[in-house]
Every structure is written in structure tokens, then in C-alpha cells.
Amino acid sequence: MSGVPTSLHLGPFSFHLYGLGLGIAAYVAYLYAERRLRRRGIDVAPFARYTAALIVAGLLGARLANIATNWSYYSGHPGRWIAVWQGGLASFGGIAFALPVGIAGQRHWWPDTRLTAFTDALIPALIAGWALGRVLGPQFMVNGGGHQTTSWIGMHYSGQIGKRVPVPLIQGAEDGALWLVLVRLEARWRTRAIGTISAVAMIVWGLVRAADEHWLLGQQSHSGSVGVQLAGLALAITGAITWWRVSRATRADHGVGAPSTPRA
């Protein structure tokens, strides 16, 4: 079998499905995020500029991280550095670059909005976009599959020999399920402290991404297996710390643990 197609050809033009899929996912996530921010009374006028900065930082970081962790493949071949249509974006490299840009942008354009209130509105949209992006992006890239397998779930991918674990589809399902959980919790936890949704998302996504890297991709990954696993655990720990700080602040606001006032 020729594997999952990687491009469409219309006359003299070729459209790489990897980039096209990521573009569609990014646009859907943008519209959804804008809607969520507007519903929470957050000004969306600067959101297009904010999004553009995040995308540029994320793509640059994801590509540089992939090059750094697969230097033997890229060394001596500068042309491969820009061949993103062949795959090669390390998700945690994108997060590492986009995170400081996102925090700085939030403080610049929304100085009166708490960071955790902003992330609570934004993160479910990012997770939804990520779910769509895994299906429409990596699923159609060269070397998009995971470990070789004889299981019925295996698929043939361009550039890889034999049937492979369909990691992009699995991760798309995982991220889609996480999005549904976050939306459900958001509806049930209306009185919970600001930042709780962000904390849950970081804990779950970090642990699941590290597990996927270890068991589905492992050392055959082209995005630095050990680095991705460590980054996933670091994200989960950050989420746990965020949960602890939010819970502690909530208890302090409600006077939990404080000495009671004696009755007159």
C-alpha cells in the first residue's frame, strides 16, 4: 500500500495536507477561542495580533526543537530545515517558545485581566484545536505513524515500512476527550476558583502526552523522545502546583483554617 496520502495535486500545484490541516485547525481554534473570550467579557480587539504572535513563536520553537533533537538527520542538509511539509514539528518546542510570548502578550494587551482567567478561557479552545490538528496535520505527514505493529488498528504511512500505530488519530481522540471533560467540568464548576480548568488541562495533557511518547513512539520518535516525556511531566507538575496555589488562595479567601471569631 502507498500509505496515507501526504499531498493533493491540482494541475501544476501541490497542496501538502500536513500544512493545510494545521492551518484549518488553527483557524477553527482561533474562532472558538475568540468566542470564549468574548463570552467572558474579555476584549477581543487585539486577539488577532496575539494569535499571530503565538503561531509564529510556536512554529519557530517546534521546528527548532525538532532540528535540535534530530541533528544527525538535519546536519549538513540546510534544505531540510525548512521542509516542514515533510513533518518535523516538536509540540513541546512550540509550547516552550509560545508560552513566554503568550504570557507577555496577555500582560501587554489585557493588563486588567488575571492570567488564570485568561487561560481558563483560552486553554479549552487550544485543546480542541490540538485535537483537530492531530487528525488533519500529522495524520497526513511523512513518517506520521508510531511503532510498527501487526494489530488490526495499524495503518500504512508514507515513508515508513509496514503497518504503524496510528498515533495522530489516537492523540486526536485523547485531546478530543480532554476537551469534552474540560467543557463538562467548566459547566459543573462555575463556583470553583479561577485557574482550576487550566490546572486540570495541564495535568492531564502533560501526563497523557508523556505516556504516548513512551509507549506509542518511544526512541523511534523524530521529536526527541526523552525530552518530550520530561517536558510532559514538567507540564503536569506545573499544573499540580497551579491547582495547589488556586486551592490555597480559595481557602484563604473563605477563611478556611483561620481562627473563628468568638461570639459576644
Task: Provide an overview of this structure.
The protein has 264 residues and is mainly alpha-helical. The protein has one domain (7-253). The chain has 9 helices and 4 strands, in the order ββααααααββααα. The strands form 2 sheets. Strands 1-2 form a two-stranded antiparallel ribbon. A hairpin with a 2-residue loop joins strand 1 (7-10) and strand 2 (13-16). The longest helix is centred in the last third of the chain and has 29 residues, at 225-253. The protein is globular. The termini are far apart. Mean pLDDT is 88; it is low at 257-264.
What's the structural blueprint in terms of helices and strands?
Elements (H helix, E strand, L loop, with lengths): L6 E4 L2 E4 H23 L7 H23 L1 H4 L3 H4 L9 H19 L5 H22 L18 E2 L6 E2 L2 H22 L7 H22 L7 H29 L11
Antiparallel strand pairs: 1-2, 3-4
What keyword list fits this structure?
two-stranded antiparallel sheet, 9 helices, disordered C terminus, globular, mainly alpha, 264 residues, single chain
Low-confidence stretches: 257-264
Mean pLDDT: 88
Question: Looking at the structure, what is the overall shape?
Answer: globular
The H/E string reads: EEHHHHHHEEHHH
Helix content: 55-70%
Helix-strand category: mainly alpha
Give the terminus-to-terminus CA distance. 84 Å
The count of helical stretches stands at 9
Number of domains: 1
Please provide the count of β strands.
4
What radius of gyration results from the CA coordinates? 21 Å
Strand content: under 5%
Main pleated-sheet profile: 2 strands, antiparallel
Strand arrangement within the widest β-sheet reads: 1-2
